């Protein structure tokens, strides 16, 4: 039993009801395939492979590779910690109609809050701020789209995804000064001089 039980909002319930009423097997199959792009196992493997590649082939990008790997590790662990403290029933456990239209069963029944996939995507969207404008927009669009698959699959309430996304962005921003090696005083001085 967790310390806190969270109930979905009226908006969460209304969104889930609409999805359950209008989903179908094609939508479910597409969302289920896309959602793998935000899975912690896939992201950890990619960030570890990228880190190793940078260490061997592009040492000038080590700080960025370290940053991505550390953020990936933290955002993989944090949702599990929060889910052990917070109980919230997933919307897919509360719908019969949605299952008839193709909605699958996701994860543990009471692990809706927060969406781990959205935590990873929030961190990715935040880290994209380090990129030039065109790739930044592309990465952020992909991060939002992958997060929304969790709502479409009724694996999470909309609020679980919004909070998870914001939490991921906050984690990336909090870790950035340490992992990218830019001291706070130096940043503060450069802001006041600008």
Describe the protein.
With 194 residues, the chain is mostly helical. The chain is built from 9 helices and 2 strands; from the N terminus they run βααααβααααα. The longest helix is centred in the middle third of the chain and has 24 residues, at 62-85. The chain is globular, with a radius of gyration of 18 Å.
* Helix percentage range: 55-70%
Mean pLDDT over the full residue set: 83
Total helices: the number is 9
Distance N to C terminus: 52 Å
Low-confidence stretches: 96-103
Question: What's the arrangement of strands in the largest beta sheet?
Answer: 1-2
Beta-strand percentage? under 5%
Shape: globular
Class inferred from helices and paired strands:
mainly alpha
Q: Radius of gyration in whole Å, from Cα?
A: 18 Å
Major sheet characteristics: 2 strands, parallel
Number of strands: 2
Q: Write the H/E string, N to C.
A: EHHHHEHHHHH
List keywords for this structure.
two-stranded parallel ribbon, 69% helix
Task: Quickly describe the structure.
This protein is mostly helical. The chain is 69% helix and 2% strand.
What does the secondary structure layout of this molecule look like, with pairings?
Layout: E1 4-5, H1 10-22, H2 25-35, H3 40-57, H4 62-85, E2 86-87, H5 97-100, H6 116-127, H7 133-152, H8 158-179, H9 184-193
